[in-house]
């Protein structure tokens, strides 16, 4: 029997699974098809695809800088070069802002950390039970699996639903609002625009990233990932499944208008709605650990809205478990 079961293969789950695996047996489950969570890579063909969640990492703490620098040396990550166009007068541009990306996709960190971990995808955790000092986990395949310890890394609303019977801590009573995001991925006819990204000042469109500029693949098309503002997505997300085309059309029109790129035929489009994109209001604790029940929780939303927040939370949990 595995000592620890980790739910989630995003940065939080991958980091804690990697740290725990140095001393314990670990098994990981994720409901998605592959690793990365909100930093996943939408593969279209071969190496061609879109970073449709996390766009880039810009490390803030010295510990995370050390971690990412090490992964740059190991050729897991690289700096995203080229021209990044800042068009937002409401925010101050940080000229030293560094943009780090995965060599083949932004889920490369999760892939690297999970190399030696037993990972199981398309397995959704439905319910948890605690009996005779063991955790019994019911998955979507109807199987009940038992473990000595569990670590949950789901977005806050999902975590609350799964674990409210077992966690008696005030952090679970808080009502946090995770912002939504609508992402539109497009392939258009090649043109002379070679900018790597745009940061807009617009009520609908927040950002556009040029996938070709990451130099991971060669394509006869230009691939762009367009991300909405939180404000617009919060209003649209509940109906996005029904209104995919309409919402993406609005974003695409904005993209051509704001970037000054000549409007061309859209050869390919895909819409992905993120209901729980990020939480900008951190908690007072960075992770949760119940040493009696061996139940742990780590996730970005404890700490902040970035991928680095998940990494910090997982390291904090590991320290608590190791005490
Ligand atoms: C559109 C968007 C853009 C972003 N841009 C940036 C950016 O540019 N830079 C940056 O630093 N951060 C960015 N972020 C935030 C960043 O992606 C997150 O902070 C980070 O990925 C969170 O990692 P996590 O491991 O805590 O959670 P997640 O990545 O969400 O991982 C949780 C995992 O748990 C799995 N899961 C959930 N419930 C279950 C269940 N019941 N059973 C099984 N598996 C389950 C999910 O499938 C998922 O893989 C962005 C996020 C979004 C959505």
Describe this structure in words.
The chain has helices spanning 11-20, 62-73, 108-113, 156-163, 230-236, 244-259, 300-303, 307-322, and strands at 4-7, 26-29, 41-45, 48-51, 77-79, 84-86, 100-102, 118-120, 125-131, 134-139, 144-147, 149-152, 179-189, 197-199, 205-210, 221-228, 266-278, 288-290, 295-297. The relative contact order is 0.19. The protein is of the alpha/beta class. The two termini are 23 Å apart. The protein is globular. The strands form five sheets. A six-stranded mixed sheet has the order 8-2-1-12-19-18, with helices on one face. The protein has a six-stranded mixed sheet with strand order 6-14-15-16-13-17, covered by helices on one side. Strands 9-10-11 form a three-stranded antiparallel sheet, with no helix packed on it.
Number of domains: 2
Radius of gyration: 20 Å
The count of DSSP E runs of length 2 or more, i.e. the number of strands, is: 19
Tell me the CATH topology of the largest domain.
Polyamine Oxidase, Chain A, domain 2
Percent of residues in helices comes to 10-25%
The neighbouring-strand order within the major sheet is 8-2-1-12-19-18
Percent of sequence in beta strands: 25-35%
Reading the helices and strands in chain order gives EHEEEHEEEHEEEEEHEEEEHHEEEHH
Reported CATH architecture of the largest domain: Alpha-Beta Complex
Decide which structural class fits the backbone.
alpha/beta
Give a list of the ligands.
flavin-adenine dinucleotide
Shape: globular
Characterize the largest beta sheet: strand count, sense, and whether it forms a barrel: 6 strands, mixed
**N- and C-termini, Cα separation:** 23 Å
Can you identify the CATH class of the largest domain? Alpha Beta
Count of helix runs:
8
Low-confidence stretches: none
Mean pLDDT: 95
């Amino acid at each position: 029997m595995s000592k620890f079961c980790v739910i989630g293969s995003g940065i939080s789950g991958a980091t804690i699974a990697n740290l725990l695996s140095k001393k314990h047996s670990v098994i990981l489950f994720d409901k998605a098809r592959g690793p990365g969570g909100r930093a996943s890579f939408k593969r279209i063909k071969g190496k061609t695809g879109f970073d449709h969640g996390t766009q880039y990492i810009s490390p803030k703490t010295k510990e995370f800088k050390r971690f990412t620098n090490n992964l740059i040396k190991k050729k897991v990550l690289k700096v995203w070069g080229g021209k990044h166009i800042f068009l937002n007068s409401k925010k101050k541009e940080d000229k030293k802002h560094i943009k780090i990306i995965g060599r083949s996709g932004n889920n490369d960190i999760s892939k690297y950390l999970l190399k030696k971990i037993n990972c199981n995808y398309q397995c959704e955790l439905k319910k948890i039970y605690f009996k005779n000092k063991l955790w019994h986990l019911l998955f979507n395949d109807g199987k009940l699996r038992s473990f000595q310890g569990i670590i949950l890394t789901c977005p806050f609303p999902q975590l609350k639903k799964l674990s409210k019977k077992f966690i008696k801590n005030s952090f679970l009573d808080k009502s946090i609002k995770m912002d939504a995001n609508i992402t539109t991925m497009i392939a258009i006819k090649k043109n002379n625009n070679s900018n790597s990204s745009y940061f807009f000042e617009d009520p609908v469109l927040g950002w556009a990233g040029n996938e070709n500029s990451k130099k991971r693949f060669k394509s006869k098309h230009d691939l762009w990932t367009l991300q909405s503002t939180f404000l617009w997505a919060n209003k649209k997300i509940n109906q996005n499944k029904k209104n995919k085309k309409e919402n993406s059309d609005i974003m695409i029109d904005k993209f051509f208008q704001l970037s000054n790129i000549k409007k061309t035929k859209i050869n390919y489009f895909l819409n992905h709605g993120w209901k729980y994109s990020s939480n900008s209001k951190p908690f007072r604790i960075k992770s949760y650990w119940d040493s009696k029940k061996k139940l742990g929780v780590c996730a970005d939303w404890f700490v902040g809205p970035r991928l680095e927040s998940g990494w910090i939370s997982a390291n904090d949990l590991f320290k608590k478990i190791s005490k």
